[in-house]
Amino acid sequence: MAVDPRSCQLPSNRVIPEFGEVNVKRGPSGTVVQFLMRPTMQGAKKEGWQTGVALDASYSMRNWYGRGMQGKVPPEIMADYERRGLVVEKVIDGRNVKRMQPAAHEDAVRRGLMRPTENLVQPLARNFIGLLAERLDEDGGTTVVYWACGDGSKVEVLGDFTAAQCRTLELRGPIEFGAGTRLLPAVKYFAERFADANKGIYVFLADGAFEDLAEVKRYTTQLARAIANEKRNPIKCVVVGVGNQIDTNQLAELDDLDTGTDVDIWDHKIAAEMRGLTDIFAELVNDNEIVAPWAKAYDPTGKLVKRFTTGLPAKATIRLPPGSAFFDLELANKRIRQPLVVSGT
Question: How many helices and strands (H and E) does the chain possess?
Fold first, then answer.
């Protein structure tokens, strides 16, 4: 295990249970650590939250919805399909892709060469929808949409669903999977539909890169400034990366976006690294909340680096020596250790 030299948000599965999130900035003069205590979300339904889940519907997600086929068609059979006009070429996500037509799929399935993919989105999405509807949403119903539909910029609205309804909610993808991946329309949909909500949290499932990242960053900056100037109420957007094509650099860019204000709109998680669904609540902490009557932070040598004599806030920052591999936090009734290292780095 080696010290991670980068400035980063630690993967969720590297964060101890007491913390919701840990951010590390390393430099030659020291290591700055910001840690957020894990929010309990008790009484959150009384705070006027509106919630939403946006599901990536770009073409690359077809397999994830159980709408693709897996298996291998021998070259000679594929050549026969092409001769019979059962294979067409289309531009999908900026690439030329050969697509088998339904008749070819049916024939390949009949021959035992292919089978439908498993719907992996549905159980994950149901869990997110149910959690938000049950734990947060003021009305008890979470709004669900597909995004990146059609030309990649369309939003398809499914409706509002309670925790009970989402247990049987069928999520097999949009009417038309997208030829591109534009995030901004989905962000604007939630921000504008629930502009008068007291608070809002919206979760975006995504499997790849965003074509309109610059536009999303500009719009986010506008939102943050409006919130900072009390011209609109706060919102939180959490993008959850799924699959192995995730552009982690883009997710980090959104998460770390400097809007020139103290408003932090974006958070990001990687599905495979999440400890549980409630990790999406990591940044929903009240900066003024005191979670323990006192606390002390220690560096790896055991030296006291910060004393919280008037109480430990839900969000706190400490400074450690350069290259620190962990820190200890002593609370009123226990002492906990948070590693600051990532395996394989």
Answer: 7, 22
Express as a percent the part of the chain with pLDDT over 90.
74
Mean pLDDT of the chain: 91
pLDDT score of 5: 47
Where does residue 68 fall: left (phi above 0), alpha (psi -120 to 50 degrees), or beta otherwise? beta
Q: Which of 278, 253, 277 is nearest to 267 (CA)?
A: 253
Using DSSP, state whether 254 is helix, strand or coil. helix
pLDDT digits over 23-33, tens only? 999 999 999 99
DSSP code per residue over 85-123: T-EEEEEETTEEEEEE-HHHHHHHHHTTSEEEPPB-HHH
Distances (CA, A) of 312 to 294, 295, 318, 336, 342: 6, 6, 12, 14, 26
Which residues, in sequence order, are bridge partners of residue 116? Answer: 69
SS (H, E, C) 185-239: HHHHHHHHHCCCCCEEEEEEEECCCCCCHHHHHHHHHHHHHHHHCCCCCCEEEEE
Of 185, 187, 205, the C-alpha closest to 269 is 205
